[in-house]
Structure formats: structure tokens, C-alpha cells
Design brief:
The structure is a single chain. The protein has 527 residues and is an alpha/beta fold. It has two domains: 147 residues, Chitobiase/beta-hexosaminidase domain 2-like (Chitobiase, domain 2); 365 residues, Glycosidases (TIM Barrel, Alpha-Beta Barrel). 33% of the residues lie in helices and 18% in strands. The protein has 19 helices and 17 strands. The strands form three sheets. Strands 8-9-12-13-14-15-16-17 form an eight-stranded parallel beta barrel, surrounded by five helices.
Length: 527
């Protein structure tokens, strides 16, 4: 799409918004909206149908209105809501065409995923009392329109840190539902930390019997059984979300090393820490690689995702520099130094996962310096704008690695709008800042940019009940940057759309927080 097309679409959307046709606007904003004449009125009984695809989405939509008279039948071309398969290369795997006519709603797509996203937009158009409240569907009507929509990126992720603070499976499912509403398609699940090991590994039971209990703060005890993980993965699949687990190594792993201290450099269990330390898995012992490969085998069995995240960030080498085993490995493998040893460590695990036909994600730390060349199945997550600006992005692309953009300025939603706990002024931002100044929001991304992500870290005791007010409403700006292409709405117009969603968030039970600094009441503590 060229700049002229983008401006035309922007004008169409602005006219559409200013006309007040929809009581609930669609966010993230669609690629194109056309106003049509007329109104669609829901009837006492709603019939949903499909041709060769759309059955799963029809069942999903029917389930959104359990108390309504809704029938789902295949092959009913005059149904109230009809899903149709088309062959439109321009829409890709996730795009859709939504037509609201006076007599019928038609959602057309190449895939079931496209149908699903068409339904998410349809739900946005309904009044909150209908979509998530008590008003009956038969009392609702929609202005006629045509929407053509497709995503900017194939990777649109939300990361939740369950390592430092444990969240219940029910809470995680709630966030999967919220991700679907925002058309996010990757749940990046940070499962291991210095404060806790949260994933059951059958071969190494002490990872959970000891490692899940090393921190003593509120909501810092607990782990997910393999059955719970399988259930969450299946739940996500129904929402067209891929669950990508993160097993952070060689650092941020104190919980695992407390459980199995023989995997440290000197065989001594470290202390659990909230941030990071030089206590790393020993990169010189072959036992470390055997252990981690066994762990990753079970991880692969639990998660069908093409991607596995292996961390690789914030790993000071003070202890490796003194460890005889690490120094021997450096010598025997003709490595340069301890940094090179981490790249060797990363390469071995990436190659192992390559035999499982998986790709490996590392935080950008692995490309800051030259050293051992990483395999082709490595993807780099660009995160540390504060410390290294775009160094990880530039270096990763230069080395031919795909990149996920998710800088700590400004995609880390644990950074509140105003200071709280250890989050000082320099670790805060509002919705206007992320909308207008986010370094991750690339106007013309390189073809190696896979997509974009946002993170909710739980360091400094961000408990489960504190998450909503950090995530919402600022995540609307990030979802917009991940999904929508073309010229952006002016911030004030966009923010009006966001505020129009507050009633919907309330109906969904989301405890959203202030979006701008001037909106934060005196004494507000973010907890």
C-alpha cells in the first residue's frame, strides 16, 4: 500500500468514526472500512452457517451467547451470519472481509483464523451490554458496512512472567480471551526464573518440589502440572493463539540450581534473587547440557509451538571466568572467552531443538558482541532499548536472523504510568508515549522482522490482582501497532476510541488503570 492509498483509507476511517455509526469501534483499527446503506437487525432466533470453513468459529460465536436462541447449521446460504471461504491472496492467512448487509452478515476469509478475527471485529461493533452483558442479542442492530482487514505482522505477542509471581490457570485463560479480543496471536509464557520454576518436568521432580517454592513472597509459590499446561495450550488453540514457552538459561535460573546445585560451577546452591546474578548454569559441565536437553524434550512434548524461547539475557560471567570447568570448555572448544562460551551454550541448545524442527528465540544479548555463529533457526527478541538502543535489531538483521521487536521502552507494561515501588520516574510511560514514541513500532520493517511483542514482567511483586491496571488500556496502543498498517490516526482521535472501550472492559471484569499521568488520582499506588 502506498502513501496515497493510506491517506485515502485514513480519510474513510475518520469520516466513518465522526459519523457516529458504531456505538463500539473496532480496535485495533481495520485496514479499510466502507459505509453501506441500511441497518442489520438481529431477530429472535439467529442462524449461523458456513460452507467449507467456519464451523469452529460458528461454535465459538454461539458460545458467546449461551442464553440466546442461536442455531448453527452447515450449508444455509440465507443464514443471518454466514462464513464463506474465499481465495484472496491479499488477505493472507489471518485477513477477513466482513460485510454487514440489511439482511445478512457475511464473513469471508481464506482460513478459519480469518473467520475468527472477523468475529472479533463483529463483537467490537456490538454494544457492550450485548457482547458481554445482559441485553439480548435480538434487541441489537448494526449499521451496514464492509470491512477489509489483515494484520501488519504474523507475530503479535503478549508475554506474562509467571516465574517471579505465580498466576492461576483460570487467570491465564482470562488473558487468552483478552488477547483474542485484541487479535494477538502468541502467548509468550515466561515459566522459569530465579524466583521460581513453574513447569512440571517428570524427569526432574525437584524442579517443582523445591524450585517452585524458593521465594517466600505472596503468590510466589506454585507450578503448573503437565495436565494444566496441556489444557491451557488447547484453550489457546481454540482462540488461534500459539503458546510459546520460555525456559530462561543460563541466567535467571537460580530456582533450578537450588533444586539441582550440582549444575552450578562449584556445586553450591545459590540464593533466589528478584533481578539477576552471576549464578549461571555451568557452561563447562556436560551434565548441564544433558539436563537441559532432557528438560527441553519434555517442553517440546507439551508445547506444539514452532518456537521455544531460551532466554539468554542478563548473564554476568564473573563465576564462569573463575570456573575450571568453564575455562576448560573454552580451551577445548577453541573459544575466545566466557561470552563466547554462552554463544556456544546457546548454539548447542538451538541445534538440539533444531532436531525437533523447532526455532529458538533468544533475547538480544546474544548478538551484542561477535563470537560463535548462531544457527539459522535462531530468532532474536530485541528488548533492551534503554541499554543498547537498536543494537540488537541491527546486529541480528546483519547476521540474517529474524527479529521480534519488543523494547523495554515502550512495550513493558509492568512499567506503570506513574512511579510505584522500584519503578521510578524513568521506568514509567503513558499511552500517548507508547502510541507516538515506541521504538519497536517500525514504519517500514525489514523483511526479517517477524513481528512485535509486549511484556508484563512481575518483578517487585506485581501480583495477579495488579496486572489488569497495568495492561489496560495501554495495550490497545500496542495491539494497534502490531495489527494495523498504514497511516495512524491522530493520538486524540485514537484515545477517544480507546476510552469508548471502557464500558466494554468493565463488562468483561477488567480492572483497567489510568492511561495518562494527569488521570492518576492523588495517592494512587498501582496495587
Amino acid at each position: 500500500m502506498n502513501k496515497v492509498d493510506a491517506k485515502i483509507i485514513l480519510v474513510i476511517i475518520l469520516v466513518f468514526i465522526s459519523s457516529g455509526i458504531c456505538s463500539q469501534k473496532i480496535l485495533p483499527m481495520p485496514f479499510e472500512i466502507k459505509e453501506l446503506k441500511g441497518t442489520f437487525q438481529f431477530r429472535e432466533t439467529t442462524i449461523i452457517s458456513w460452507d467449507v470453513l467456519g464451523e469452529k468459529t460458528a461454535v465459538y460465536l454461539k458460545g458467546k451467547f449461551p442464553n440466546e436462541r442461536i442455531l448453527a447449521k452447515k450449508g444455509q446460504p440465507l443464514a443471518d451470519i454466514l462464513f464463506k471461504r474465499i481465495d484472496d491472496e491479499d488477505l493472507g492467512d489471518e485477513g477477513y472481509n466482513l460485510k454487514i448487509l440489511s439482511g445478512q452478515i457475511i464473513i469471508s476469509a481464506n482460513t478459519e483464523t480469518g473467520c475468527f478475527y472477523g468475529v472479533q471485529s463483529l463483537l467490537h461493533l456490538l454494544p457492550p451490554d450485548v457482547a458481554y452483558g445482559s441485553q439480548e442479542l435480538q434487541n441489537a442492530s448494526l449499521a451496514c458496512m464492509e470491512i477489509i482487514d489483515k494484520p501488519k505482522y504474523s507475530w503479535r505477542s503478549f508475554m506474562l512472567d509467571s516465574g517471579r509471581q505465580y498466576q492461576t490457570p483460570e487467570f491465564i485463560k482470562q488473558y487468552l480471551d483478552r488477547m483474542a479480543m485484541l487479535k494477538l496471536n502468541v502467548f509468550h509464557w515466561h515459566l522459569t526464573e530465579g524466583q521460581g520454576w513453574r513447569i512440571e518436568i517428570k524427569k526432574y521432580p525437584k524442579l517443582t518440589s523445591i524450585g517452585s517454592k524458593v521465594a517466600k513472597g505472596e503468590e510466589q509459590q506454585g507450578f503448573y502440572t503437565q495436565d494444566e499446561i496441556r489444557d491451557i495450550v488447547k484453550y489457546a488453540e481454540r482462540l488461534h493463539i500459539t503458546v510459546v514457552p520460555e525456559i530462561d538459561v543460563p541466567g535467571h535460573s537460580e530456582a533450578a540450581m537450588i533444586a539441582y546445585p550440582e549444575l552450578t560451577c562449584f556445586g553450591k546452591a545459590p540464593e533466589t534473587v528478584m533481578a539477576f546474578s552471576p549464578n549461571l548454569f555451568c557452561g563447562g559441565k556436560e551434565e548441564t547440557y544433558t539436563f537441559l536437553q532432557n528438560v527441553l524434550q519434555e517442553v517440546c512434548d507439551l508445547f506444539p509451538s514452532e518456537y521455544i524461547h531460551l532466554g539468554g539475557d542478563e548473564a554476568p560471567k564473573d563465576i564462569w571466568d573463575k570456573c575450571p570447568d568453564c575455562q576448560a570448555k573454552i580451551k577445548n572448544e577453541n573459544l575466545i572467552n566466557s561470552h563466547d562460551l554462552q554463544l556456544y551454550f546457546s548454539k548447542r541448545l538451538a541445534r538440539f531443538l533444531g532436531t525437533k524442527k523447532r526455532k529458538v528465540i533468544f533475547w538480544g544479548d546474544v548478538v551484542y558482541q561477535e563470537g560463535v555463529e548462531l544457527p539459522d533457526n535462531v530468532v532474536v527478541y530485541w528488548w533492551n532499548w534503554r541499554g543498547h538502543k537498536d543494537k540488537a535489531l541491527v546486529n541480528a538483521i546483519a547476521k540474517g536472523h529474524q527479529v521480534i521487536c519488543g523494547t523495554n521502552y515502550y512495550t513493558y507494561l509492568n512499567f506503570p504510568v506513574t512511579p510505584w515501588n522500584n519503578y521510578r520516574e524513568h521506568r514509567t510511560f503513558d499511552i500517548k508515549t507508547v502510541y507516538e514514541e515506541n521504538p519497536s513500532d517500525l514504519e517500514i520493517p525489514h523483511n526479517l522482522v517477524l513481528g512485535m511483542g509486549t511484556c508484563l514482567w512481575t518483578d517487585w511483586y506485581v501480583k495477579q490482582n495488579m496486572i489488569d491496571r497495568r495492561v489496560f488500556p495501554r495495550i490497545f496502543a500496542l495491539a494497534e501497532q502490531m495489527w494495523s498498517s498504514g497511516q495512524r490516526l491522530p493520538f486524540d482521535t485514537f484515545y477517544d476510541l480507546v476510552k469508548s472501550k471502557y464500558q466494554l472492559l468493565e463488562k468483561m471484569g477488567i480492572d483497567y488503570g489510568p492511561a495518562m499521568g494527569y488521570e492518576v488520582p492523588d495517592g494512587y499506588k498501582w496495587d
